Request: fold
Amino acid sequence: MGMMGASLALALRKSSQFEGRVFGAVRSQKSADYIRSTDLCDEVHVVSSGREAREHFDSLPESSLIVIGVPVASAVSLLGDLRGIQHLVTDMSSTRAEVEKASAGVRFVGSHPICGSEDTGPQAARPGLFETRLCIITPSPESRNEDIQVVSDFWKDLGMNVMSMTAPEHDRILAYLSHAPHVISGLMAHWGMSDAVAEAVRKSPVPLTGGGFRDMVRIAGSNPEMWLDIIRTNRREVIGSLETFQKYLADTIGLLKGDDEQKMMEWLRSARLKRNRLCGYPDDK
Amino acid sequence: MGMMGASLALALRKSSQFEGRVFGAVRSQKSADYIRSTDLCDEVHVVSSGREAREHFDSLPESSLIVIGVPVASAVSLLGDLRGIQHLVTDMSSTRAEVEKASAGVRFVGSHPICGSEDTGPQAARPGLFETRLCIITPSPESRNEDIQVVSDFWKDLGMNVMSMTAPEHDRILAYLSHAPHVISGLMAHWGMSDAVAEAVRKSPVPLTGGGFRDMVRIAGSNPEMWLDIIRTNRREVIGSLETFQKYLADTIGLLKGDDEQKMMEWLRSARLKRNRLCGYPDDK
Reply:
């Protein structure tokens, strides 16, 4: 149980929809002590491996829903140990394809509640983390209808908006709207310090960057370990979306070279409209 | 006098360093009425053309500093009418090359106080707009040393940090750190609504975009008229910086294709460090 798992425990214990018990499994004694001292779960167990986790899960009531809340690479490995388990399993991973592949032989419906944060560990738990946010569930062809319903209702009862799509759809869309933008933000930081600019940046008495640039490189400051995990487990789609971006960039440079005032104005106006649609703002914002 | 000019008048009248009088020239009777009713200037004149502005300026005390605060294209045209004027002239334009070219025959030292805002008109004036912000002055080979000093001190007395560079340097650096990022932000809005994603964006019960993407497309919502003016008057440098960006993008796609975990981690860590240096944050932020 990291930040997401602990937030989930908190939200469940606060929810009027949920009448069951919350069992937590953590890897360190320190996390277990913290969870006990703050009464985050009804029970907490320390498990030092996937096999120990499996043994613990096997002892839980059959109607339990197991929610995996670990980094993608660890979720993939843990699912291997859960093959043949009786319980319904879901997860909270940011990329889906590798997790779905690893879930073969597990009674599984994948979930991606989109509400991460830079903060880590159970100490960073927030009970309202899931409320009003979006959860994408990614049933596989093997998922049973009644299990899909259980997982969907589970998130809805926590106040989430639930949307269903396939794992490949999920990974493509998130590549565009989340993973590749992280790469582009990092790219802008590298480019903003390229030879043509670096000396002036160093010489300036105050930062040369305005609010626009600053906003665009904000996520270049994200946790590198977490993002390497996400980018590597969705590498093909991230590359694909960046290659599309590359085409758009070439077209835009062509537009600027053409210097057609009216076309450039249309491009700027349409960018503003699309940005409003993407962010859920009114058209005239 | 738009937002910038009116903010300048307010700041001057508030400043303990400035003992002179503030004369304003505006194009509309409505703006003049507003400026009179709010006592923004000691005197305000309505001028309907560059020639009328010139006649008005000729009548001002010889020691006056004339500060042009109009869109770049209008500044270029106005400077043509000021050829041979006795007074020292500066401006507040966001791009420098075309303004510098137009200043031939004018006693001129260019300025770019970096403190724009989306709000327009004298009603949006703020007295503290210039404080602690950066002003780049761009003396030309023709600028006299004593005039450079006057213009530099003028902005320093308003609490600005002043940095001097040539007009071409200015336009290159601002292309990277301000103008091209606006283009990239708009590009991301177009790309974020491309075929691979648009349907999911429309179907989602809540906006699919997280905080990262949202920050990166914020400036795609900027005033299109203003940005078209800026991009067109610095088109060569904007194209040049985007072509460098294109090379960085190709290299980054190559890095992802290589899938060398250590190299990718170094790239992410170094992006974070460069972003901190660019924004003036501590290295470990």
